[in-house]
Amino acid sequence: MMDSERIKEREFEDLLGRFANFIRIHIHKYNLYKYGLDPDDVSQDVRIKIWKLLDSEKNITNYPSYIKKIVNSSVIDQLRKIRREEGIFSHERQVAENEVVHSIEMARVKSLEETVGKAVDLLIESRRQVVKLYLLNLSIQEISSYLNWSADKTRNLLYRGLSDLKKNLKNMDIHYESQR
User: Fold this and answer.
1) Of 37, 123, 136, 160, which cross-links 32 as Cys (Cβ 3.0–4.6 Å)?
2) How many degrees, rounded to 5, is the angle at CA 157 between CA 155 and CA 161?
3) Where are the domains of the chain?
4) What angle do CA 171, 175, 178 make, to 5 degrees?
5) Residue 1 above 70 pLDDT?
6) How high is the mean pLDDT of the chain?
7) How far, in Å, CA of 132 to CA of 142, rounded?
8) How far apart are CA 23 and CA 96, in angstroms?
9) How far apart are CA 60 and CA 50, in angstroms?
10) What share of the chain has pLDDT > 90, as a percent?
């Protein structure tokens, strides 16, 4: 090991020895446990910053003041780190909750689609054709053109088919109220 490294280590140990109680008192005054912080983590951060300070060969005239600033910045850094982590966990939890809600909603929609599909399949063939096309958002004109039927026949089969569909759904314990 080089002499400059040994000198730096001795100076580091000397500083920590002289200011250990000072550092401990300033760390504990923040009551870090209430924030979920371990004072030893902050103390370790302070040691690292002091080592870097000695490595920079900066000329410090008032060590107590400078060390107090290091303790304060270490506490602030640790608090910011916790807040950042809490923000990430909060975001992840929110995303997970949204995924669960979305999955539940998708399952509900899928179940409803299957139920409506079964109810439509119970209709007589002519009404079933018209109702299925109507549920695909085709207009009466488009349906009548597609099936080569008159608009009156298509409208009549659609209205009767929708009426039968409501009855089938009611029998399946699905109740629909028109929002008029």
Assistant:
1) 37
2) 115
3) 3-92, 122-171
4) 130
5) no
6) 85
7) 13
8) 42
9) 11
10) 24
Look up residue 39 and give its two tokens.
Answer: 């004072």
CB atoms within 10 A of CB 111: 10
Q: How many residues does the chain have?
A: 180
Q: Measure CA 81 to chain center.
A: 18
Return the SS3 of 141: helix
Cα torsion 76, 81, 84, 85: sign: negative
Averaged pLDDT for residues 121-139: 91
* Token pair for 13: 């140990």
Q: Any idea which fold 3-92 has?
A: Rna Polymerase Sigma Factor; Chain: A (1.10.1740)
CA 103, CA 124: separation in Å to the nearest integer? 34
Q: Which amino acid is at 164?
A: D
CA 109 centroid distance within chain: 23
Alpha carbons within 13 A on the beta-carbon side of 165: 22
- Kindly state the average pLDDT of the residues 82-100: 76
- Residue 155 pLDDT class (50, 70, 90 cuts): very high
